[in-house]
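Mods, move this if it's the wrong board.
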Amino acid sequence: MKTIHLSRTTLAALLMVSLFSACRDDNGDPNEGLGPLTPSENVFGKANDTFSAEEWYPGGELGTTDKASYSAAAPAVERVPGMENDFNVGEDFFEHLYTFEQQPRKGLGPAWVRNSCIACHPSYGHGKRQTEYRANTIGNGYLLVVYHPNEAFTSDGVRYTVAPSSYISEVTGMPQTAAMNPFKAPIDEKQISIEWKNVNSMPSGLAMAFPDGEKYELIYPEVNIPVSAFNTNPKPTNYEVRLESTIGLYGTGLIDAISDEDMREQYRAEAAAGVQLNPAMWDKAANDFAPTAYYSAPYNDLGTFRGSHGPVKKFTYAMTRGSLQDGAGANAIWNITNVTRSDRRYHYLDLAGKFYAQQSMNDADVQAAFPAWIEQIDPDHNHPTWHTEDVAQNIWNYLTSTELDVEMDDAHYTDFMVWHRGLAVPAARDLDDPDVQLGHDLFRSIGCAQCHRPSWTTGDDHIQDPNKFFTSDDQMPRYPHQKIWPYTDFVQHKLFMVNDIRTGWCRTTPLWGRGLCKLTEGCEDRLHDCRARNTLEAIMWHGAAESDARSAVEKFRELTKEEREAVVKFVDAI
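Not the wrong board. Structure tokens:
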């Protein structure tokens, strides 16, 4: 865990501790009863002509740390007896390597994406830009996105119809490039190429220089995976490849605490303003969420039926998850490291559920080594169908089994989720700097805040766990009624970038804490595939002709160099 204390924060930290101690209601919810922030005599945490006192604490009183770190526990964790220990145990599962044999971090086989969580999230943050795809490179946060670009295509004389931009079925949604001998990786990563290309001129017609003559550069990746790289039967056809990098883990518990009702108000406001919204999320005619905007089928929440649907989706670039308790991290501990648990006693292999198994069972190399290998896996023959005379069938039975031994027990999984939900947002920095204050005003005046909405207030924050590992609110860190400053509307927009993200729809990225990445990770890579090497490039990638942010970029271009630098300094401060 990498932790760096900020300057000018000691007094504020002591103040926070005293506030938490003084305001706690020992007879009630330990996460409630906090009073308002009281500015100290120090600059940190003190209101000025531009920023309120609370803006120094982007995660609110319960979700902000005074450390320049993405890995610190939130006050919501520290205030509940025993929860900090659970948090630390969960952190251990994030930070250390998994192996094929050894508990408690057992997993990986037969194929996997990475051998640890922190490999994808260096210093708990955003993945780093890569020039080649290697599973064992620490900092490679890339996930391969292999999908069908068209609605219909012909292969071997057969006409196929699929949903536009749907993932191919032959590999997992998060494709695996590593495997345990004797198995072969579903995709041979040595055949993957990443080529970074320069943009000579924006398709929108914008020059690669500002009116005052300062030039800038933009690059983007082209990724190629030849058919020969796929160890599947059959092999995919009619596919394209994109990259998506991991995002920071901190503050996701606070995002989880935003209510569906407040999300609906945001969508309605943008719809009324004429903003184009993803029809998979918003039903324009009904002026309400589309059925596909809700995550999961109806389920009981803490024993109470919550209606006809689960929570609204608000996690990941593609808005695929609506509850952190079954969100990206809850799934990643299974599908990235291929770790089985009590509710997922099966391998993460391919979307069709059989193509990798079909290839492996007929592979002579796998057949030759499998009998000795499975004896090590199951020496007591607790799974008789893995040990018959038919080796090919044994391989199939093992790879398609839904009764695998549990590798991560329930207690460790719940600790992992306590840690995930308990990560604090770093405090804002330099809000007393005149340049940062100027950047704050310009950020709003040119229109950036229309999508990067500055603040939200969390709801009651009752735990919603479709997997039912958590049965009461007090088992998890909670953030009820906190004013937070993530700088995002949690709505998907289109930027129309060359080699854009799959579907073109991408959630507005939270900006809180991102300015620390250069300090904690040693890089400033931004956007979904790390094509932006700094904040300025990220802004300029918003400037396509059809982009929802085109107007803001045009106004940004007309600023003076000092004003542009002030906007960047503001974004890096919050």
